[in-house]
Amino acid sequence: MRGLAKRIIPCLDVKDGETVKGTNFVNLRKAGDPVELGKAYSEAGADELVYLDITASFEGRKTFTEMVTRVAREINIPFTVGGGINALEDVERLLYAGADKVSVNSAAIRRPQLINEITNKFGSQVCVCAIDARFDEDGWHCYVKGGRERVELGLFDWAKEVEQRGAGEILFTSMNHDGVKNGYANEALAQLADNLSIPIIASGGAGKKEHFRDAFTLGKADAALAASVFHFGEIPIHELKEYLRHEGINVR
Stretch 13-42: mean pLDDT, rounded? Predict the structure, then answer.
């Protein structure tokens, strides 16, 4: 499992049809058209893309579904979509629009059975379970509603359950590290990688090329996801891959 080539995944947070990016889940600024950006990343060598409808839980979803259809038409690499997926109908709608995988977060915590339902109907490979967690005084805890609400679930226990219920991958975002650009939560990542056999996608904290290297070496992650360093042109993907190869990391 761990011997596979490491993946580089730009993440596009979409709000009202625009790509936005914040710090620690707040202070959003615009970063461009999600379809055009996705296309540019695909051409620049990204392995996959993640599109998150960050206001889906309490705003219309029509715009997002239309965008997914446009993305599927323009882009030839796999892409995952998430945000506001609460039932199988939502999964069906997005896969039908052209998404390769769906990412569930808050809804899976509220109703863990959702993971079983998705994987039973569409297969494990379609189900990515996103976990937003923060290192609080009493350890790593899961948060829902875009990081606004803490739940009584520890990161590692929940990750184990997610795997047991059939999820194909875990997308772990450290809220402490998100948008701060000081590196990923490598200790927590390594603990996840050691305890689980499904791929772990690192998210939250990329600021320079070394941070990606560390996520793969120290954090043992299978993929690294980032947003602002790509959106604002700070790290070109082809340069990043060149650097990682030079550091002895197997990238696609």
Answer: 80
